[in-house]
Amino acid sequence: MSSRRRFFHNLLIVRKTAGISAVVLTLLVAVAVAAPVVAPKSPSDQDLDHRYAPPSRERIMGTDNFGRDILSRIIWGARISLSVGVVVVLIATAVGTLLGVTAGYVGGTVDRAVSFVVDLLMAIPLLLLAMAMLAVFGVGLFNVMLAIGIGSIPMFARVIRAETRTIRNLDYVAAARSMGATHVRVVFKHILPNTVASIIVIGTTRVGTAILTESSLSFLGLGIRPPTPSWGIMVAEGRLYLEQAPWMALIPGVVVMITLLSFNLFGDGLRDALDVRLRGVR
Amino acid sequence: MLRYAAERVLLLIPTLLGVVLGVFLMLHAAPGDPVEALVDLQAQQIPQAQIDRIRKDLGLDRPLYEQYIRYVARVVHGDLGLSFRTQLPIADDIRVNLMATVYLSLAGFAVALLIGLPAGIISAVRRNTTADYATLSLAIVGLSAPSYWTGILLLYGFAFKLRWFPLLGDGDGTLPSILRHLVLPAVVVGLSLGALIARLTRSAMLEALTQDHVRTAHAKGLSGRTVVFRHVLKNASITLVAAASTMFAYLLTGSVVVEIVFARRGLGQLMISAISGRDFPLAQGLMLVFGTVIVVVNLFTDLALGLLDPRVSYR
After folding, report:
1. Distance between CA atoms of B150 and A260, rounded to whole angstroms?
2. Given an 8 Å threshold on Cβ–Cβ distance, is B271 in contact with A138?
3. I need a surface site. Which of A238, B249, B253, B304 has the fewest CB within 10 A?
4. Which of B19, B141, B276 sits opposite A222 (nearest CB)?
């Protein structure tokens, strides 16, 4: 077996949970991308004759207080959730890697300063940090992405810093330097490629965390504004109609949970398959 | 140890100043200035003279460093300013709500320990058995379930359908009522933290179980129970204490969300109203309280680690 095939075999077949999660996540992404095609109805179409319709053959997940089709809202909500997850991880990876590599490679005062701020920020729970930023910037989808993204930077910075420090002291880096490689070349050719595995592993689990945080913020009324279909908002709205239509709140919650579970399990599988130790992560 | 403790306590001062600075800068990072926000909030015509007066009252016409020093001086005296919306002292608002959150967090922590510790210990001692797999699966599900959703699920099942517990709020002030209102929220807070503790305990125990002194303890004929509790758990507890700040983050986040789900009073509830109402000073005051509590918890964690693990203070 080629090494690449062995890797995927290890990840998806040997670790059954990671394999199953990969299937779930692929489905989720496919559904989100193809939302206009696969959603049976528009997420905002109100059908006042069929309000509070329980799950049935015609309406698989039932309808809400406006008669909107819950399945369609879940599918469109997947777009929001996944884009929040991806944007957050992109922001955090870009800035976190820059900070981490700089601190780890340069060392000294720069390292101490970056580490101090990172440690301080890591002590504050992500949800609270995001809330503080929303208090400053105001609520809304864009600000939520920005707030969670900034809040996720310290985690990436810390791991990349630790990796960089280890790699910097390896013999081949010294060899490259003695052959006249510039610092920039060393960083891009020898250090960054070796941190990719860690970035992939943290990135995967952080997509899940970002989705959870967005849905929590939206649930609390600080994130995305209705009528945009966000899973958190759907639970918040459903909470008011527990008596008439318990499925309104329960179904979106299950979807968040399965999504998060899949990201966590897939991340765990990746970590084992890539054999990343993730220094600095508790 | 004393020297180490003294160093750590002294380090508290710059860290707290840093927290105050962060919170202070929050106000200035906002687009526009707080007075404009206040004027927006009132949604009415306010004469320019009055705006200038408010600006002067808040000291916003002074240089930034002077504002910071004044702010620190005020904070040290427990003066967090007035809420934009109610025009009442923020410190009073926070004092009234603080204890509600503290009770919820403590109760949640107790639930988490009750669930997490035994589950983790059993899981580690019976490694690779059905009990272990069941614990691990439940733990990962517990960590993945959003607490706002578990809250609603329990609310629906136990308060709404079975009617074992009251629906919302925090009781009429009598102890039985307070406790009855506390059960479900505490369970919600405790579930995800319990899942975390179970996982941490399991891995810490597994590591401790492979140590030489554990084999020796077995070899000299100690009962399995004594070995686990006296020799393994004690070492594993170091890992658990080291993770205290992560656990605390779970508690705080969980409490904020759970307060909204169960319509309980508390700092979370206050924070939400501050953010959605653009009540800047209130949000600032709350972040200051959260920041301070987090810093102090971390200090106690470090001190506890120093006591438990002699290697820490000699580093």
Report:
1. 14
2. no
3. B304
4. B276
Is A278 near chain B, with CB under 8 Å? no
* Chain B: residue whose CA lies nearest to A212: B146
Paired with A63 in beta bridges are A69
Q: What is the pTM of this model?
A: 0.86
C-alpha torsion B96→B100→B105→B106, nearest 10 = 100
Q: Is B87 helix (H, G, I), strand (E, B) or coil?
A: coil
Q: Measured between CA atoms, how close is B221 to chain A, in angstroms?
A: 36
Here the ipTM equals 0.82
Task: Flag if A250 and B156 touch (Cβ within 8 Å).
Answer: yes
Q: What domains appear along chain A, each with residue ranges and CATH number?
A: 37-264 (1.10.3720.10)
Q: Which residue of B has its CA nearest to A135?
A: B275
**pLDDT tens-digit map of A133-153:** 887 887 888 889 999 999 999
Inter-chain CB proximity A132 and B26 less than 8 Å: yes
Looking at residue B30, what is its pLDDT?
66
Residue A260: is it exposed, middle or buried by C-beta count within 10 angstroms (0-12/13-18/19+)?
Answer: buried
The reported pLDDT for the residue numbered A281 is: 47
Please give the Cα distance from B21 to B154 (Å, whole number).
Answer: 41
Query: Tokens at residue A27, please?
Result: 């489905």
Instruction: Name every residue whose Cβ is closer than 8 Å to that of residue A118 and which is 6 or more positions away in sequence.
Output: A99, A154, A157, A158, A161
Residue A264 at interface with chain B, using a CB cutoff of 8 Å: yes
| 3-class DSSP state of A192 | helix
Q: Which of A208-217, A267-276, B43-52 shows the lowest per-residue confidence on average (mean pLDDT)?
A: B43-52
B-facing residues of A in 166-205 (CB < 8 A) are none
Distance CA A91, CA A96 (A): 8
| Phi and psi at residue B82, to the nearest 5° | -105, 145
pLDDT tens per residue, range A90-140: 999 999 999 999 999 998 899 988 888 888 788 788 888 888 888 788 788
Q: Is the dihedral of CA A236, A237, A241, A247 positive or negative?
A: negative
Selection from B142, B190, B186, B180 nearest residue B159 by Cα: B180
CB B82 within 8 A of CB B252: no
